[in-house]
Amino acid sequence: MSAQSQANPAAYGGYRPRRSVLYMPSSNERALEKAKTLAVDALILDLEDAVAPDAKEQARENACAAAKSGDYGNRELTIRVNGIGTQWHDADLAAASAAGPDGIVVPKVNSADEVRQLVAAMEAAGAPEHTKLWAMIETPVAILHAEEIARASDRLAVFVMGTNDLVKELGAEHVPGRAPIQSSLQLAILGARAAGIAIVDGVFNHVKDADGFAAECRQGRELGFDGKTLIHPGQVDACNAAFAPSEDEVANAREIIAAFESAQAEGRGVVTVNGRMIENLHVDTARKVLATAEAIAARTA
Ligand SMILES: CC(C)(COP(=O)(O)OP(=O)(O)OC[C@H]1O[C@@H](n2cnc3c(N)ncnc32)[C@H](O)[C@@H]1OP(=O)(O)O)[C@@H](O)C(=O)NCCC(=O)NCCSC(=O)C[C@H](O)C(=O)O
Ligand SMILES: [Mg+2]
């Protein structure tokens, strides 16, 4: 399945849910164990910020062993390597490529050239076809080049927002509603959607603020993100609920499709459902809602 097909409604049979994407330090063996029991769509086994320098090599071994283990069911399993130019990057990328996870997450990707170099290095290290590149978008230069980064390779499947680094680089502040980074979030989404790849939102740092977290999930969904990155198991359920179609949305989608098909059979191209105009494009959206719900049900079965 190409990266494009994952976000393309025309190929929604191949859609992969990425509502909840949980980071965990690969040095934390308890967290690696716990992750096997969590209802997340995807995992990021971290070698970067959550791992102290002295623990980097053990963390790399743990992450690669986890990727090869087959113990994580149908959760999408990725490894976040240390950034380009760091002392650990080349060995991380080679080891992760050879381990063959579903994805390799690379921090601070800043250009299309970097994407092509990363893909070449993954291929040289023997990354299997199913191992996709996930690029973190977390600097001003990446935001300003989001579309060309997203289009740089078919192997690039997902953008991951790094909102902590972005806020730091902008000299901005973390505030409820995220006004200081709204334009950045939207430019990243525009770039991802123009290229037909998936995009997941950044993390919410306050693990005990359930209301703030729910509000940020809602905002992320409204903006168009496929899901959100998480830092704690306590964030998983609310996130899955926020990024899944509700029962009402599924029922409404069915009603729209049925009404439109009846109208078409009578030679009409437009109809109203519950007082709202429905055209072909709304039917596409309704089909996407159903396909998303089906894909979630299949992943969690
Ligand atoms: C934030 C934490 C340090 C909190 O840890 P802790 O105090 O141990 O949490 P709890 O005691 O509540 O944990 C309860 C149990 O859950 C397990 N646990 C905790 N976190 C995780 C996790 N992320 N994945 C899996 N399991 C987890 C604990 O082991 C406990 O298990 P048990 O004892 O068996 O009941 C901690 O949550 C944490 O380390 N989170 C991840 C931090 C991280 O990965 N940060 C880096 C990514 S964020 C980032 O860099 C974003 C980006 O780059 C940007 O710029 O924005
Ligand atoms: Mg970061």
From TrEMBL:
<protein>
    <submittedName>
        <fullName>Malyl-CoA thiolesterase</fullName>
    </submittedName>
</protein>
<dbReference type="GO" id="GO:0000287">
    <property type="term" value="F:magnesium ion binding"/>
</dbReference>
<keyword id="KW-0479">Metal-binding</keyword>
<feature type="domain" description="HpcH/HpaI aldolase/citrate lyase">
    <location>
        <begin position="19"/>
        <end position="233"/>
    </location>
</feature>
<feature type="binding site">
    <location>
        <position position="138"/>
    </location>
    <ligand>
        <name>substrate</name>
    </ligand>
</feature>
<dbReference type="Pfam" id="PF03328">
    <property type="entry name" value="HpcH_HpaI"/>
</dbReference>
<feature type="binding site">
    <location>
        <position position="138"/>
    </location>
    <ligand>
        <name>Mg(2+)</name>
    </ligand>
</feature>
<dbReference type="GO" id="GO:0003824">
    <property type="term" value="F:catalytic activity"/>
</dbReference>
<dbReference type="GO" id="GO:0006107">
    <property type="term" value="P:oxaloacetate metabolic process"/>
</dbReference>
<feature type="binding site">
    <location>
        <position position="165"/>
    </location>
    <ligand>
        <name>Mg(2+)</name>
    </ligand>
</feature>
<keyword id="KW-0460">Magnesium</keyword>
<feature type="binding site">
    <location>
        <position position="80"/>
    </location>
    <ligand>
        <name>substrate</name>
    </ligand>
</feature>
<dbReference type="InterPro" id="IPR011206">
    <property type="entry name" value="Citrate_lyase_beta/mcl1/mcl2"/>
</dbReference>
<dbReference type="InterPro" id="IPR040442">
    <property type="entry name" value="Pyrv_kinase-like_dom_sf"/>
</dbReference>
<dbReference type="InterPro" id="IPR005000">
    <property type="entry name" value="Aldolase/citrate-lyase_domain"/>
</dbReference>
<dbReference type="InterPro" id="IPR015813">
    <property type="entry name" value="Pyrv/PenolPyrv_kinase-like_dom"/>
</dbReference>
